[in-house]
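Quick one, T. Sequence first:
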Amino acid sequence: MDNISLSFYFNLTMFMNIGHYCYPAFVFCLLLYSFTVSANLVMIWIILREKTLHEPMYIFIAFLSVNDLYGTIGFFPRFLMDLLSDAHLISRPVCFTQIFVIYTYGCYELTILGIMAYDRYVAVCHPLHYHRKTTSKTVYTLAFFAWVFPTFYLTIGIYVIVRLPLCGNNIHKVYCSSWNIIRLSCVTDAVNSIVAMLGAVIVAFLPFAFILYTYLRIVVACWKKSSEVRGKVLQSCLPHVISFTIYSITSFSDTTLSRQNSDEINPFVAVIFSLEFVVIPPFLNPLVYGLKLPEIRRHIVKILCLKHQTKMNACRPLPAETGLIM
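Structure tokens:
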């Protein structure tokens, strides 16, 4: 069994033995998973349903919710199973599939936030040319490249990792991570390290730099505007800034954790840090956009009021003039 486990299975060692507390933890995570899926589905449904929301900004928000669903569904089912399991072995094919899903989710999130920043930049800095520059063709072309390029890069990256000879099978995390597997490699390949570093710069740092640059331009453009104009710009851009900040903090925490020696970190803190990246953004994004953007908030309130009114009408007694004898 040891030889088979070493060659075909990885062991996720960061799951702690919490005894009977695993059941409350499972219920809590299941509720979190259910809310995240439901909230993102509601966001997508409202944007698709309301024709007034068929504009680039809201379409990009729908893309963000689709990606959050993708990442959530790719992580939570396996994680929930592991919470109730005594053994935390994961086969190599499932492990590499999980790496692909979680890492593409992270890259998609960043590239979508990048095109959302571009959309706000054009709307604020070039308002007269907004509809000419952000046509339907432009929207879907940007979305296509936001999904295709990370997929292409990560497919090559995972193919390289799969071919590495490994001298162990313990992954110090609650899900599979490419960096943890690279640390298990029996050989050091300088070329692979350089390629991985360049790829990380292209996929991560360039979108980060682009988003920061667009918001610097927005701040400069609004600096001399009236307070009313600045208020409208802030209302429009604030949800995106919050989403980008949340993503930046959680991804930085996950990256920092991966580079640290797991024996020097409190296990509970390590688990929280490793979960932030895949749990917090999908959970908070629909809340941020649903509560902060007036158009989406108005449609949510409208739907809730209609449902409440329907229930009240169903419970209302029949009027006396109907002539029915009870």
